[in-house]
Each structure stands twice: as C-alpha cells, then as structure tokens.
Amino acid sequence: MFTAVLAFAGVALLINVAPGPDSLLVVRASVAEGRRVGGAAAVGVLVGCAGWGVATAAGLTALLTASRAAYDVLRVCGALYLVFLGVSALRRGRADSAEPDGVGGAGRGRAVAFRRGVATNLLNPKAGVFYMSLIPQFVPPGAGLFGTTLLLTAVDVVELALWYWMLARASSTLGERVRRPAFRRRLEQVTGVAFLGFAAGLLFDRSAPSRL
C-alpha cells in the first residue's frame, strides 16, 4: 500500500502543479486581495476536490463517462462560470482602480473567494474524470476500493493544500510590494483573458470523457 500511495503522490504532484483555472483563481485572489483571501479560494478548491474524491469512492463520477449528456451539461456550466470570472476580471481591469471583490469587508471577500473556489472546481468535469480515471490505477490488488480511494484523495488534497499555500504566500508578497493601480489593472486584464481561454478550452473540448 505504501508503494502505491507514494507512486500516486508523485503522479498527482506533476498534475497538481500544472497551471489551470483553480491555481489561477488562487493566484489572482492572493495578489489582488491578500493571502487570507487567496487562502479562502484555495480552501474552496480543496473542498471541491474532496467532494470529487468522495463521489468517486461512491461510484458517482462514473456517470460522467457513462453519459455524454451529463458530461456535456457540466462542461458547459463550467465554461460559462469561467466566462463569468473572466468578464468580471476584465471589468475590474477597466476601472479607474482595480477594486477587489471583497470591497464590502474582509470577511465578505474571503466568503466570495471560497465560493468561487468550490464552484470553479466542482463545475469542471475534468476534475471528476481525473479522480475516476487515475485513482483506480493505484489501488493495490485485494485492497478495498472505497477506503483506498478516500486515502488517495486525502493525499491529493494535502499536496494541493501545500502547493496552494506556497502560491498564496508568494503571490500575496508580490501584491504587497506592487501597489500601483496600473499593475492591479493589468493583473485583472491578464487573469480575465486567461479565464476566458480556459473557458474556451472547456467549452470546445470534444474529447471522450473516458480518455481525459
């Protein structure tokens, strides 16, 4: 079991550090609104990952590969949500000063970031297919699928937590050092375009779910 967990941790690490909408959300929140807001976004993503892991253990994610319609519905919803995030960022980038989402208070900013983290992850069907297709390959013969899936999900969540902590820390430090409104506006513009790019990639992805 230890060997299987170690092998999974190595593969998952390579996937987790790859750029994607989840990490972009954490970086943007950390630079623009500080480490705590970035951390809240990260916690939201981790909650989404844990949800996908539990769903995989229960066999629910098999619906994504068994039903192309179910996969497509979730894919389109996820793409539309990324469009919303992208357009929101571009609108902030056009403002006189890049106003943070948490303008109503720090607590509200963290709550918004948390909700966006959960939604960004759960509305991405590729996250569900990732758990469903990768984890079973590391379940040793004779081991319980349900318990091992939860164990490997926990390993993945811990890895992501450490990675997002480093991202949030580095990004918030950059944000503290660069206070110029022009920099904040450019940040919002770049992240807005990136979110729209991820949305287009998800919306026009026609690959079979089982091959993701």
From TrEMBL:
Keywords: Cell membrane, Membrane, Transmembrane, Transmembrane helix. GO terms for molecular function: amino acid transmembrane transporter activity. The chain crosses the membrane at residues 43-66, 73-90, 143-166, 187-204. GO terms for cellular component: plasma membrane. It holds the Pfam family LysE. It is a multi-pass membrane protein. It is found in: Cell membrane. This is LysE family translocator. It comes from Streptomyces xanthii.
